[in-house]
Design goal:
The complex is a heterodimer of chains A (about 325) and B (about 375). With about 325 residues, chain A is mainly α. Chain A has a single domain, classed as ABC transporter involved in vitamin B12 uptake, BtuC (Orthogonal Bundle). Helices cover about 70% and strands about 5% of the residues of chain A. Chain A is built from 13 helices and 2 strands; from the N terminus they run αααααββαααααααα. A two-stranded antiparallel sheet of chain A has the order 1-2. The radius of gyration of chain A is 20 Å and the shape is globular. Chain B has a two-stranded antiparallel sheet. Helices cover about 70% and strands about 5% of the residues of chain B. Chain B has 2 domains: about 80 residues, no CATH class; about 240 residues, ABC transporter involved in vitamin B12 uptake, BtuC (Orthogonal Bundle), CATH 1.10.3470. Classes of the chains: A mainly alpha (about 325), B mainly alpha (about 375). Chains A and B meet through helix 3, helix 4, helix 10, helix 12 and helix 13 of A and strand 1, helix 6, helix 11 and helix 13 of B.
């Protein structure tokens, strides 16, 4: 029984890691006042950029080294997802476009890019079959673990990195001047501007860094969870769950850690409960979304100040318009 | 920031909001944006296919207008997208971000499918279709009114609420399919394929004509409702400023809930058309992301139902065309999403040049300050 519970918790954490990357990235973005609904698309692009980077490297050399196998996809992923976030930033910040419309267009675009290159990358090089980067996947899945008694618990390095990034984000947001300025921009950009903070720069940087972190969730999924294999639409709707976790965690990166693991658990719990009919399983899969709705309703009903989203979330800032 | 030289600092460019732009100039800007987007897409497609872009666009055109059948399929896609775009418009005009159209469509589809499944040929076909229509619209309404209710009383964030409702609806459909399909398969076949009860009849031998007519009537009705009715006016006022609306005595909560009921109801109608008029089956992917595309269609048309016919045609044409390219040039069909994305970015971006004016620093002024 105990080993089953631990196996479930480990599986929940593995499911939760991509969500945690996405949620941390979206928290940074939303703290600057940008509601980036393009996160699901960015996560697809993060995954496929990593795959393309890894594929080209594995193809170019007969003897891939471990360091480059890890660094090249990681770098490709960060560049790809940051570029996506840059499109969003340029349209919403510089061109004052509507954030929801831009975000949804970015999601369509990003999922399209992911599935397009996922489906045709090999045929560009005259190969057939489906993408499977065994060597790169091997390095990404190398477990780092510990054991309690005779139960072994281990994850790939990107799982630890996700938790570290969430903690670091929490520190930067709450304990540093940069974090203070960023929160000021998200709460009231006009006041922040008057105080001499470069609102445009903060919004651009927060959105692009947030996008890059979210993209790493896609990378973790393709490199660690599926060991270097790509399936079209394999990432599913996890991007929207990441957006939901931001609300569930009340815009706090530290709470996002355990929230992601809970959501990861809810995502797969139906597999671990014995004796369920397949119809009931479908109902249980509804849980993450229903839970998010409840959190939304309760936080809005209680109106506690520290539980509210950044005050200017979703609104464009135009200095000349006050 | 500091003016050590004592000269007044003036940035190279500064941006001011236009009071208004002549309508034809605004449309010229938008047309230029679409042309630019098509050029960029052409470059992207040429890089991918290494083929002549003119041929590629010819293939796109053939995809929508190649044969009579293709035209009907295109019209079918068009009316579904148009119907959902119409649905999100009233809510959108009120600044209520209903991105849950997908879920409301699915609930409508679920209602229609349930009626077909349980009632089948126990009552005459006309009665069955009427029941299905009512149930679909009601379910869509309920799905739309739940977030509206919480928005009205507690100002709950509707963007995320409606988004989550999409997935709840999808899981509900998966749940019912599991119950309805006995062998544990997760795919629902064609419902009532023997009796054809609950299927919208063909008109003049055309399967989709009935659905097309229903959407055409809805388009005109919504145009009149938004433009000439008192309720339509209230929606605009609430959208412009809730405080103004309260000041002039509009019951904002009532308007929010009522408008979302309409929005959800039209989505339910789209769900009914998908099941009864077009697919005769139900699946969690039945709506295929149409809820998101509809938001962009509605926004591009500036909430005008008649213009929406054009904008939804543009999107459908691009999507079908890109699909045709994918088959002709053996590409993955996701190229359609990429092209749609590029075009949307350009159209979204060009609004900036419609609304704002860019002023360059003039030389003359600079000399004056020196």
């Amino acid at each position: 029984m105990l080993d089953k519970i631990i196996a479930f918790i480990c599986a929940a954490i593995v499911q939760g890691i991509p969500l945690l990357y996405g949620a941390t990235g979206e928290i940074i973005t939303e703290k600057s006042g940008n509601l980036n609904l393009g996160i699901p698309g960015i996560m697809y692009v993060g995954g496929i950029s990593g795959i393309i980077g890894g594929y080209l490297y594995e193809k170019s050399t007969a003897d891939p080294s471990a360091v480059l196998c890890i660094l090249i996809p990681l770098l490709a992923c960060i560049i790809g997802s940051a570029l996506m976030a840059l499109i969003y930033s340029f349209l919403t910040i510089t061109l004052h476009a509507n954030q929801n419309v831009t975000g949804l267009a970015l999601t369509t675009f990003g999922i399209g890019i992911g599935n397009f290159f996922g489906g045709s990358l090999l045929s560009f090089f005259g190969e057939s079959g489906s993408i499977s980067l065994l060597t790169t996947g091997k390095y990404y899945t190398t477990p780092f673990g510990f054991s309690i008694g005779d139960i072994e618990i281990s994850f790939g390095f990107m799982a630890y990195l996700a938790v570290f990034i969430a903690l670091a984000t929490s520190f930067v947001l709450n304990r540093t001047r940069v974090g203070l300025h960023l929160r000021a921009v998200g709460e009231n950009p006009a006041t922040a501007d008057a105080a001499g903070i470069n609102v445009t720069l903060y919004k651009y940087l927060a959105t692009c860094i947030g996008g890059a972190i979210a993209g790493m969730g896609g990378l973790y999924f393709v490199m660690d969870y599926t060991s270097g294999a790509w399936t079209n639409n394999g990432f599913g709707d996890r991007g929207w769950l990441a957006v939901a976790i931001v609300i569930f965690a009340l815009w706090k990166p530290k709470s996002a850690i355990w929230s992601s693991f809970i959501f990861g658990g809810l995502y797969i719990v139906c597999v671990y409960i014995p004796g369920l009919s397949s119809a009931t399983k479908e109902l249980i899969k509804m849980l993450p979304y229903v839970v998010t709705i409840f959190v939304l309703v309760f936080t809005s009903a209680r109106k506690k100040r520290e539980h509210q989203p950044p005050a200017s979330l979703g609104l464009p800032y135009f200095r000349e318009e006050r | 920031m500091s003016n050590k030289s004592g000269r007044k600092h003036e940035p190279l460019i500064h941006i001011t909001k236009r009071a208004s732009m002549v309508w034809y100039k605004a449309w010229i800007v938008r047309a230029v944006a679409i042309v630019a987007a098509l050029l960029v897409s052409a470059v992207v497609i040429t890089l991918l296919t290494k083929d002549n872009p003119v041929e590629v666009y010819a293939a796109m055109f053939k995809g929508s207008f190649g044969t009579e059948r293709k035209v009907w399929v295109m019209l079918k896609e068009l009316v579904v997208l148009l119907c959902v775009s119409l649905a999100v418009t009233p809510a959108f005009k009120m600044r209520f971000w209903n991105i849950g159209a997908e879920g409301q469509v699915l609930m409508g589809a679920l209602g229609a499918a349930a009626c077909m499944f349980y009632i089948d040929d126990k009552i005459p076909n006309v009665a069955l279709i009427a029941v299905m229509l009512v149930v679909s619209i009601l379910l869509g309404m309920i799905w739309g009114m739940i977030p509206a209710f919480f928005k009205a009383i507690w100002n709950t964030n509707e963007t995320l609420f409606t988004l989550m409702m999409n997935y709840v609806a999808m899981q509900l459909i998966s749940f019912f399919i599991m119950i309805w399909v006995p062998n544990g398969s997760s795919v629902m076949g064609t419902i009532n394929s023997a009796t054809e009860s609950g299927w919208l009849p063909s008109l003049f031998g055309q399967k989709y004509l009935f659905s097309i007519l229903i959407v055409a009537v809805t388009t005109v009705a919504l145009f009149i409702y938004l433009k000439y009715s008192k309720q339509g006016y209230e929606i605009s006022v609430v959208g412009e400023s809730e405080n103004t609306a309260r000041y002039v005595g509009i019951n904002v909560k009532k308007v929010i809930i009522r408008t979302m009921a309409i929005s959800g109801g039209i989505c339910g109608l789209a769900g009914f058309l998908l099941v009864s008029g077009i697919n005769h089956t139900v699946s969690p992917n039945l709506a295929g992301g149409v809820g998101f595309t509809a938001i962009m269609v509605s926004w591009l048309a500036k909430f005008n139902p008649i213009v929406m016919i054009l904008t939804s045609f543009l999107i459908v044409f691009l999507q079908i065309g890109a699909g045709e390219i994918a088959t002709t040039f053996r590409l993955n069909e996701s190229v359609a999403d990429i092209v749609t994305g590029i075009i949307l970015f350009f159209i979204i971006g060009c609004e900036f040049f419609v609304q704002y004016k860019i002023n360059f620093r003039s030389k003359h002024k600079e000399e004056g300050h020196a």
